[in-house]
Amino acid sequence: MKESREQGDSTLIGSILWDSSWPGFANEDERRLLFGYLEDRFGIRANIFADFDLFGRRKSWWLLRKTVGVSLPVSLKVTQVGLKAFDKVGNYLKPATRMMQLFGHHATKGVCQISEGDFERLLRGEPLKVESTMEDGFVILLLGEHVLGMGLLLQGMITSRIKKSEAQRMANK
In sequence order, what are the beta bridge partners of 171? Predict the structure, then answer.
């Protein structure tokens, strides 16, 4: 390898061997599972994600818009790629807040409309009691037309799964 000594020169590096802890392309079974979950739970059609690659590592997945003619930087050590999409949390798949803020408007079910008072209670860490026929699991929290993020419905109670810093940012708008 040649080391650069002048401004503007590049340092040549060798390829880095792939590490299994780095994100890799999700296989078709994972795509069907994850996007099938969005369709079953929230009514968000899987074909909405046809233009996205899905990457996974351990219990997390990311979306990256497909690009023509651009190869992935396989020689770089990548720890995450694109938009965080899902995490496996206990027995549940949790869609990421930012992903749902972008795609949640496609939801036809699994949505919980909350009031500003409800949002304030969630900000204080208080659960919301709701009358719902939905199965336990994650729900989309909606304030008016604005998708806030995710809540977890367990036995008629919803708790916020929005990071406190994100919720505070939304509350200060």
Answer: none
Q: How far apart are CA 108 and CA 23, in angstroms?
A: 31
The answer, as to whether pTM is greater than 0.85, is no
Please answer whether residues 131 and 155 qualify as being in contact, where contact means their C-beta atoms are separated by less than 8 angstroms. Answer: no
Write out the two tokens for 23. 């994100």
User: Could you tell me if 85 and 150 are in contact, meaning their C-beta atoms sit under 8 angstroms apart?
Assistant: no
- Cα separation, 64 vs 81, in Å, equals 7
- Each residue's pLDDT tens digit, 67-81: 766 565 555 455 567
Q: Which residues contact 2 (CB under 8 A, 6 or more apart)?
A: 11, 12
Q: d(Cα 45, Cα 35) in Å, to the nearest integer?
A: 8
What are the chain's domains? 8-91 (no CATH), 110-173 (2.30.130.60)
Q: Tell me: the pLDDT tens digits for 16-55?
A: 444 555 667 788 999 999 999 999 999 999 999 999 989 8
The residue assigned the tokens 């020169």 is 9
